[in-house]
């Protein structure tokens, strides 16, 4: 039940933000710092999520098979591999590391 | 709906904007990873599909799955997901001037407002072409995204223990891939700001994680955006100036850019 509410709440808020962009008078948001902070907010959140997903276990900094997957992902991104290839090979890498250790 | 009468000699579906939209819309294939990760995070197949239908924004969905999957609370998951969706609101602000959607199409236009559709729309020269590009991208991506989410969710469910297949690492890799183009791109804000925000966010998250409830460390990390972005840096680009014409925001990079850098690179 909680999960359904979570999904519906996230969905409603996501749509509300999208629609709000079309309805809010532009002048309301013409404050200089918003243009700087919003792109950085996206970067900061995505970067934090790399840590929670790849380098934390129960709230404790941890280096395990996931780190190997992230390493492979970075190499593939440098090589300009497409999104799905990056994600799939990162998963395969972590799975193989777990198999061998 | 997708295009009104056009000044172009070509029918709308043969215009460059439509072809771009179709090509970019196909990146929606990575909905497979959204579906698999949603189920791995503990959502049911239908809850996962519902996130794709309702949120329809990759970053926000992955954030929701990520926080829930690592044992975070519902509030932290929704907050992280919503903060990541903030940029779509700013895309809407720009697109409302470029597309000028009427009240009837506005609700649909809003839902299709994501990184990819914004990038294609803003890359066009005329309003008609911007509309064609926006809707072709948005509708294609929406359809592909829903279908591949369902496939990924069913596959994820069939696979069982997500860790055995490295799906937890896939989630981490997805965030790396989503942030990558924002770090290596040549946005109007320069590169040092995003890099500094990324590094600071990661450090804050690592350091705060042992002391806050699971999921909240992401929000602690998000404050890096304020630390880096709030102090006024020199330079003209920070000058808000008087209201400017539409072309001022002709690059989506202004508010963060397409979340898949390969999109922009694939544009003909």
From TrEMBL, chain A:
Ranges that cross the membrane: 38-57, 69-97
InterPro entries recorded: Brnchd-chn_aa_trnsp_AzlD
Domain of life: Bacteria
Protein name (record): AzlD domain-containing protein
Keyword terms, alphabetized: Membrane, Transmembrane, Transmembrane helix
Lineage: Bacteria, Bacillati, Actinomycetota, Actinomycetes, Micrococcales
UniProtKB/TrEMBL annotation, chain B:
Statement: the UniProt record of this protein carries the keyword Membrane: yes
Pfam families: AzlC
Organism superkingdom: Bacteria
Coarse class of the protein's main subcellular location: membrane
Keywords: Cell membrane, Membrane, Transmembrane, Transmembrane helix, Transport
InterPro entries in alphabetical order: Brnchd-chn_aa_trnsp_permease (IPR011606)
Topology relative to the membrane: Multi-pass membrane protein
Biased composition (Basic and acidic residues): 257-268
Residues spanning the membrane: 20-50, 62-86, 132-153, 165-183, 195-228
Segments for region (Disordered): 231-268
Compartments (UniProt record): Cell membrane
Family per record: Belongs to the AzlC family.
Name of the protein described by the UniProt record: AzlC family ABC transporter permease
Biological source species: Ornithinimicrobium kibberense
